[in-house]
Automatic annotation (TrEMBL):
GO molecular function term, any single one: phosphorelay sensor kinase activity
Coiled-coil boundaries: 228-271
Organism (species): Pseudomonas frederiksbergensis
Descriptive protein name: Chemotaxis protein CheA
Domain Response regulatory: 641-757
Record carries keyword Transferase: yes
Keyword DNA-binding in annotation: no
Length: 763
């Protein structure tokens, strides 16, 4: 590339940045002018933006940009000087020009020469002298139908007519992108920001490691001070004795050297203390600044949304206004990027499904213009978004009919569904209330896509509605994906962090607070029994040997699922910088990421949603372990554990219930592979297995077990539908201790065989 080409490429990049900034000014100003075409400040800002873009396009040699910006400037100057009253068709055309300018500044999406000529011709017609005079007596209608809103068709390009002389264009000064506070804006890659945040967090941890060194130095100073006093006391006791001159001099030298070293230690200790304080302060500021660099105002995700609502409303023949609160709410840039698509879905949904036509609204006693409100705020470490409209709400009966037509539920069941239950169907994939597909909706990919994207952010979305008055979507997502406020706990002598967003509460349970229901442990919480599970089992850590009377429990919730997780100790709340796990590790069960604590030690961040799935799996397979309740009562004899392996749900449950009723502790596995994994990770007193199963049959399972040094002495019972001699021989040859045919066994036969092999239920 020649120097001239490099210069041209650099200028084009600057023009692209200029266009991005100035078109945002134009869009915001034109939408404001649509509501009040005489606002002088907005007219001035729009005119200056068009003027700047014209000069910038002339400098870089983009003739199309000069032509478009010039006719837009003519229109705005005419409006400023009172020779033109901006009607809706003028605003439409100016917004169209804004889009063209942005496309011109984007080389891969540049408009054709025909489009540019057609636009210049359109503006020429709108600037025709017949259209320049403001209306005399007839007010402008507040609403135009879809045909009136469209620009007039252009068949033959008409040259633009210069209206009145305007000030000659001046080359724009080299502009810098700035914030509302006048701060310069630079482009930095997300990878570099992530690296900076990672380094700053480690720097903060390193400075905190000075604290134990300071404590050690203070202790050393005290020890030395005590040594000096002991030497002084020794000198006093030896004064009355006749010491040789050499001994007295040696004692004095020791006292002097010890006093000098103590003075030096005091000075250096003070210096180290001051250094540690300043270092920690600077590291904290560095960390806070690096974190702030990732945060952006919520308004960044709203670029074009107001315009989109306005344009979509006009296309559908509706008057719609979008009001936004909390535009300056700070959110992580990664979260902002992921919020853009679901917000667009919800806004389009509100315009298409919620807001009525002006005629319908007037008949209902509402203003002709519909209102959509979007509010952003911070609450308990979360970004809370509320999007509401004053439309017609959701037609629940239409939802009910659609459920029946799509055979999602029987008619008698659908008739009993509550409002909350009916609204949840709107989030199902492919569900739509539109009878036919349009450009806006009808494909059933709206609300389910919103829910999917919000869940990817570890958030939640809820829909509420009032018939005839409108709908309201409530979204909660984390403020940042880089930092998480967590409760750090101890499990198996290791630290784990539970994100606070998923914690209902922490509590201490007394032994009498834990009850047994259907063989599972529960405790009473908010008027319901909540299941209790051990974190040590979920995270595969050794069970706690603590002698505490109370049980430390973290109550976690994800939508409707709620459980209490028993841990060993609450360490406390911490703000943790999320450190992604190495991709080579793949997805680790129940863990989402890692972090560093203040002392530099590693903590793993729990994936609560994954953990709840693990709890459900343990419940379904009957492997959930009981948590020992500490009390002053004599310890109860341990129950013997039996593993039942069978691919038939009916047989599996029958055997499990029979053995549970007899007092045994029973776990189940769905096939041989699942059973083998259970045998390797847990201890059992007996294995009961079927023969014909997917992935690994019973014969293979028994053969593997007999080759394992730890498991080879475990009693094994084979229970099979096949009652042939060769099958019996195969099972016994593989190492089974007992063979029972399902076709011939009854309750007592199974239980008698178990007692014969391992005895009663209690050890």
């Amino acid at each position: 590339m020649t120097p001239e080409q490099m210069r041209d490429a650099s200028l084009l990049e600057l023009f692209s940045l200029e266009a991005e900034a100035q078109t945002q000014v134009l869009s915001a100003g034109l939408l404001a002018l649509e509501r009040d075409p005489t606002q002088a400040d907005h007219l001035e800002s729009c005119m200056r933006a068009a003027h700047s873009l014209k000069g910038a396009a002339r400098i870089v040699g983009v003739d199309a940009g000069v032509s478009v910006a010039h006719v837009m400037e003519d229109c705005l100057v005419s409006a400023q000087e009172g020779r033109l009253y901006l009607r809706p068709e003028h605003i439409d055309a100016l917004l169209q020009g804004t889009d063209l300018l942005m496309r011109i500044a984007t080389p891969h999406n540049a408009p054709s020469a025909v489009e540019i000529d057609a636009y210049v011709a359109l503006m020429g017609r709108l600037l025709d002298p017949m259209a320049l005079a403001p209306p005399i007596s007839t007010p402008i209608a507040p609403f135009m139908d879809q045909q009136q809103a469209q620009p007039p068709a252009i068949e033959v390009p008409i040259p633009v007519v210069e209206s009145l002389p305007i000030a000659p264009s001046e080359p724009p000064r080299k502009t810098r992108r700035t914030t509302e506070n006048g701060e310069r804006v630079l482009r930095v890659t997300a990878e570099r920001l992530n690296s900076l945040l990672d380094l700053s967090s480690k720097s903060l941890v390193e400075t905190l490691r000075l604290k134990p060194h300071l404590a050690t130095m203070q202790r050393l100073k005290r020890i030395q001070s005590n040594g000096l006093r002991a030497l002084e006391n020794l000198n006093v006791h030896l004064k009355d004795q006749n010491l040789s001159l050499e001994a007295q001099e040696a004692l004095d030298d020791a006292r002097r050297l010890l006093a000098e070293s103590q003075q030096l230690l005091v000075e250096k200790n003070a210096e180290l203390d001051e250094f540690a304080w300043h270092a920690s302060q600077r590291a904290q500021v560095l960390y806070d600044t690096a974190l702030a660099c990732r945060m952006r105002p919520f308004a960044d995700v709203l670029t074009g949304q107001v315009r989109m609502v306005r344009d979509l409303g006009r296309d559908l023949g509706k008057q719609v206004r979008l009001e936004i609160e909390g535009e300056k709410t700070q959110v992580d840039r990664d979260v902002l990027e992921k919020l853009e698509a679901p917000l667009t879905h919800l806004l389009r949904n509100a315009v298409d499904h919620g807001i009525e036509t002006p005629e319908q609204r007037l008949l209902a006693g509402k203003p002709a213009e519909g209102l959509i409100r979007l509010r952003a705020s911070h609450q308990a470490g979360l970004l809370v978004l509320e999007l509401s409209d004053d439309g017609n709400g959701v037609d629940l009966e239409k939802v009910r009919r659609s459920i029946i037509e799509r055979q999602l539920s029987p008619a008698d069941t659908a008739a009993q569904l509550s409002e909350e239950e009916l609204l949840t169907f709107l989030f199902l994939p492919g569900f739509s209330l539109r009878d036919k597909v349009t450009e806006v909706s009808g494909r059933g990919v709206g609300l389910d896509a919103v829910q999917h994207m919000v869940r990817q952010l570890r958030g939640a979305v809820v829909l509420e509605q009032t018939a005839g008055e409108g709908s309201r979507f409530h979204l909660e997502v984390p403020l940042t994906l880089s930092v998480v406020r967590s409760l750090v706990v101890e499990v198996g002598d290791e630290a784990y962090a539970f994100p606070l967003a998923h914690i209902e509460r922490m509590c201490d349970l007394e032994p009498e607070d834990i009850v047994q229901l259907e063989g599972r442990q529960h405790f009473w919480y908010e008027g319901r029994h909540v299941g209790l599970v051990a974190a040590s089992q979920l995270l595969q850590r050794p069970a706690s040997q603590t002698s505490q009377q109370t049980l430390k429990v973290v109550v976690i919730r994800e939508r409707d699922a709620i459980y209490g997780v028993a841990v060993e100790r609450f360490i406390g709340e911490r703000t943790l910088v999320v450190l992604p796990l190495d991709e080579r590790l793949g997805k680790i069960q129940d863990i989402s990421a890692g972090a560093l604590l203040d002392d530099g030690s590693v903590v793993l961040i729990v994936d609560v949603e994954d953990m709840l799935r693990s709890v459900d799996k343990l419940l379904n397979t009957g492997r959930l372990e009981r948590i020992a309740r500490h009390s002053n009562q004599a310890p109860e004899a341990a129950r013997k554990r039996i593993l039942v392996v069978d691919d038939s749900l009916t047989v599996r449950e029958l055997q499990r219930k029979l053995l549970l009723n007899r007092g045994y502790d029973v776990a189940v596995a769905v096939d041989g592979m699942d059973g083998w994994n259970a045998l390797r990770s847990e201890d059992f007193d007996l294995l009961i297995t079927d023969i014909d199963m997917p992935r690994m049959d019973g014969i293979e399972l028994v053969s593997l077990l007999r080759r394992d040094n730890r498991l080879q002495s475990l009693p094994v019972m084979v229970v099979s539908y096949k009652d042939r001699e060769e099958d019996r021989r195969r099972g016994l040859d593989a190492g089974a201790d007992y063979y029972l045919a399902k076709a011939s066994f009854h309750d007592d036969a199974l239980l008698d065989a178990v007692v014969e092999l391992i005895g009663g239920a209690r050890a």
